[in-house]
Design brief:
Length: about 325
């Protein structure tokens, strides 16, 4: 497990989160003008998985369960020596008696599902918890229940021999400023690592997938990339044990370029014990989806867009990215 965890955050590489649910991915297709059905996602995944040279920048791909079970798609990744992961939570539902807050489902029967996923060649897993900032939110109950689920998922994954990617996402939605994001992210991560310790997990055999510390989408006071990078690193230094091999960020609604800039700046600053990498979904595959438009003649264009974003984020792993490279 520890070797897989290290391989996922190998220098110059990161993780592609290709794990959107069918409902979510159909909405994404419609947002870019694609009239999608249940076969569209399989076609899109095959186009992108076939991208030549993808393995130079992408260490692993997080798959939705249906994609993991698709032997053709799975074998493309195997042929490129790209590690295969799977999203194992069943999504976030309303938390009873706490309006506006969510709890992720999926612990029932998880041990059996993990055993099946491993038999299909999965090497790592991911569980996403959702924390919302708002009036009187998040509650201690919401944070507590979600981190307990994350800890149980982590322990169960490691029991089966799978590397867990632990994703406590403090949402960017809302009017909160960066100071509030900092407070909530710090509290969430501190509570999480306390719970992981209680569950006796192996910190060397897991990865953390957090949000950037960031002003809310509707906050009138926007802050600089520099402040986002600095505050994010401050929170991580205060909460994440040195034993964790890597931190792979979610993009959380930032544009492709903004997300890359944040990772780049944190690696420029450096001075941390973990690998700082990426685990993006829309920020990696979004531009490719826009140009593909479900047309065979756009296959190469879509692959080029994915490869470009993967390469830009690879450069950000060393602090070697700048925005001018986008036009080269």
């Amino acid at each position: 497990m520890e070797e897989i965890a290290k391989a996922l955050v190998a220098p110059g590489k990161g993780i592609w989160a290709a794990d959107a649910s069918p409902k979510t991915i159909i909405k994404r297709f419609k947002d870019v003008g694609i009239d999608a059905d249940e076969t569209t996602n399989t076609r899109f995944r095959k186009v992108l998985f076939d991208t030549e040279g993808l393995e130079n920048y992408i260490s692993g791909v997080i798959l939705y369960e249906e994609t993991l079970k698709n032997e053709i798609l799975r074998n493309i990744l195997v042929s490129k020596s790209i590690l295969r992961g799977v999203k194992v939570d069943k999504g976030a539902i309303d938390l009873e008696n706490f309006p506006g807050e969510k709890i992720s489902e999926g612990l029932d029967g998880l041990r059996e599902r993990l055993t099946e996923y491993k038999s299909l060649g999965a090497q790592f897993t991911k569980w996403r918890a959702v924390i919302t900032i708002g009036k009187d939110m998040p509650s201690d109950v919401c944070i507590g229940l979600n981190v307990e689920s994350l800890a149980r998922f982590t322990a169960l994954s490691q029991e089966i021999g799978l590397v867990p990617i632990v994703e406590p996402e403090v949402l960017m939605d809302g009017k909160h400023d960066i100071v509030r994001s900092e407070e909530v992210t710090k509290k969430t991560l501190k509570t999480l690592f306390g719970e992981l310790k209680e569950h006796r997990v192996n910190l060397h055999g897991m990865l953390l997938k957090p949000n950037f510390v960031h002003h809310g989408k509707d906050c009138p006071k926007k802050v600089s990339d520099e402040e986002i990078a600095q505050k994010t690193l401050e929170v991580l230094k205060a909460t994440v044990p040195n034993e964790v091999p890597g931190i792979v960020f979610l993009s959380g609604g930032d544009s492709s370029i903004e997300a890359t800039k944040h990772v780049n700046r944190m690696n420029e600053i450096g001075g941390v014990p973990w690998q700082i990498a990426f685990s993006f979904e829309r920020a990696l595959e979004g531009p490719a989806m826009e140009v593909w438009q479900c047309k065979d003649e756009n296959t190469k264009k879509a692959q080029d867009e994915l490869l470009k974003r993967a390469k830009m984020n690879s450069l950000a792993r060393t602090g070697g990215y700048n925005e001018e490279m986008e036009n080269e």
